[in-house]
Amino acid sequence: MKGTLEDRVVQPLPHPLPQMGGGLDPVLLLNCDEQKTNSVLKKEILRFPWSQIESGIKPLSHLGESLSRTLVGRMGVGLNLTIFLFLLFSACRSPYATLVEAPGISPDCVRKFRPTFSSFMYKTEVDVVGNQFNGILVFKTMPDSSRRVVFTSETGPTFFDFEFKQDRFRVVYCLKKLNRKAVIQTLRKNFELLLMQNPGRPAAAVLRDSAHLYFPFVSGKETNYYVTDTLCQNLLRIEKSGRRKTKVTVAMEPFQGGMPENVRIVHRNFTFAIRLTVLNPGNH
């Protein structure tokens, strides 16, 4: 597979984005009806005091000069409106709209990639809106078949301890300042994607493009796409999508002992990335 792990993660939209005339913010327009949810998640993430994290946030009103004024000046009102509508409806179109059905492929094929392990330990780097911190993330299968995910700092204190058991989720421990519903839900969904824990209901058909198979699993208003090669031999990445936008991408390589050795989780709505590098690969 060519390219680095980061190459296979679609990065967020570039900033700064210009501001539309008349007070219409293109960020709100391009995110369509998912903006409210994204705003809540971002607000809760930013409340956690990572090195004065809020000092790095700029209001959307500072995003630049008017795109509308620029387009009117250069191309005229009619062309400006046409381009604006094209961009708006293109942005609100599902990124999976061009995929076609892959006949003869069973959704069950992807289930073989569900991680199986007794214990895995990762060196962990977290980037939240430009602020970084490091620690150790441990995945462990317990005697009752539940799975624990524990994140500790390099000096010892625990940030959180989560338990996943069938369709149940339990917070065993969480640092008080991190113990916010939106933050925990975001972390929970990240780990459920990686562990294939409650992936959702298989869609009616597997999809494909020229180089990949897409296995959709519907979970509420979101869809989890497990993306493999055309022969369903390698799991390349996982994507969580809303109706019109990919929200989270999980890239991984290679699989050893039931878990990937390298993982990168990237959120598209705001700057929140997690990089995992396995410690002592092959000894699990």
CATH topology of the largest domain: outer membrane lipoprotein receptor (LolB), chain A
Distance between the termini: 25 Å
DSSP helical segment count = 5
CATH architecture of the largest domain: Clam
The topology string of helices and strands comes to HHHHEEEEEEHEEEEEEEE
Mean pLDDT: 75
Specify the structural class: alpha+beta
Spans with pLDDT under 50 lasting ≥5 residues? 6-34, 50-72, 84-91
CA radius of gyration: 21 Å
Assign a percent range to the helix content. 10-25%
Largest beta-sheet details: 14 strands, antiparallel
Give an overview of the whole structure.
The structure is a single chain. The protein is of the alpha+beta class. 20% of the residues lie in helices and 34% in strands. The chain has helices at residues 26-31, 35-47, 67-75, 77-91, 181-195; strands spanning 100-101, 119-128, 131-141, 147-153, 158-165, 168-174, 201-202, 207-208, 213-219, 222-228, 235-241, 246-256, 259-267, 272-278. Strands 1, 2, 3, 4, 5, 6, 7, 8, 9, 10, 11, 12, 13 and 14 form a 14-stranded antiparallel sheet that branches. Helix 2 packs across helix 5 and helix 3 crosses helix 4. The longest helix has 15 residues, at 77-91. The two termini are 25 Å apart. Residues 6-34, 50-72 and 84-91 have low confidence and may be disordered.
